[in-house]
Amino acid sequence: MIEVEGITFAYTPGKPIFEDFTWTAGRNEAWVILGPSGCGKSTLLSLLAGLVRPQRGVIRVDGQLLTRPRPQTGLIIQDYGLLPWATVRENVRLGLRIRNFYGADGIHAPRDYQPTLEVEPWLERLGLLSVAEHFPGQISGGQRQRTAIARTLVLNPDILLMDEPFASLDAPTRDSLQRLVLDLWVERGLTLIIVTHVIEEAALLGQKILLLGHPPNQTAHVIENPDFLHPEYRDSPAYRDLCRELRSRLEAL
Amino acid sequence: MSRRNLLLAGLALLLFWQGIAMIIRQPILPPPSRVGVVLWEEITRGALGVHFLASLWRVVASTLLAILTAAPAGLVLGQSKRLNALFSPLIYLLYPIPKVVFVPVVLLFLGIGDLSKITVIFLILFFQILVLVRDQAMGLRPELVLSVRSLGAGRLALFRFVYLPASLPAVLTALRQSIGTAVAVLYVAELFATQKGLGYYIYLNGSALFNYPAMYAGVVAMSLLGLGLYFLVDGLEKRWCRWQIVS
Fold this sequence. Notes:
The complex is a heterodimer of chains A (253) and B (247). Chain A is α/β, with parallel strands linked by helices and 253 residues long.
């Protein structure tokens, strides 16, 4: 599904964040990219979203060379990226409006795209109907995050990229949104890639965890976490062991 | 501000005027009732309507011209650090200069027709809009642009869905702030070598014909022009920038 082949990327010449870095993520997998601040997690997400391009090496999605944002990849950034002047409903419609604006050209919208502005089912699914006419400045952080998720899922993506999606939420909101994201992952058959610096979050959300250390990152350190969907996983010894392992491996990187 | 309060304030002003006129009892200050009658006569039978339209045309034309040039320029400067670094010293120097002092210069270069008057008002509005739109565009977080790009937006869609709505409040704020100045400068510009416009009309009746009620009718018409434009901008702001008011 996603193949990263020997990429090198640097913002400043001579200080690469990734150097000859190779990594593969399969279809319908739930990945967490875990690492300390400045390790290149968000950069990797931007690369996967096609917003920046590697200086060397290539990224392929579904066998296609990635050279620009593809319409089937959804990205949710850290502070949600909502338009402050548009209501929740209009924010959720934004991606559709952009697609309607260009038409089904295969670049900005998939070739089989049928113009629509229908978002009500998503507003309902994410519990946003009651705030649909509110502006982002008027709703809570959790509702903003739900709006951003709705806006992305309306476009029916096959890949969902999320950058620190739960960082600024209180604990109960975070728990319910984490569950929601996993539900949606199962329901929609998404390939999910979440970036976080929180070890516990990585253990709860990642079927597979990619560890990044201080740049330059040359090797993909991958840890499998097959039991993560188990209902009692949060209270299991396996969860605690994994957290411990992640912590010690992060320190070693 | 409620409509009722505005109406009451307007009535209070009229009463104040009426009171002063009754105390002074001089031809140079006719009461509002008399001015109202003359205003009606001058519009229906005289040429006040034509003068009003001439002034309105100059303000509207210069405003549209200023929006169409300054808003895109402000957006470009706000998004390009390099261009802004290049131009901001120039803007910094030019912005505070009272543009009304250029009236004689502009008249010399562009002649006495509409073009010179439109140019002077344009100069005032241009810098006001340019600076406010630039600052607004600079405040647009790059993450916002990135996230909209990730939804599939290219340059055109970014302009339509991000830059345009983002600069709208700045344009309206600039207009609201400068519409008073624009009308004032219009008055000054219309004092020079013209035979159309409210400035000319007021000057003609006040200083040449000594027809004071007609002069006041001109003053009222000019005030209504300014007020009308102000209300229009205010209304557009409430309609298009609701998010700034409620959030």
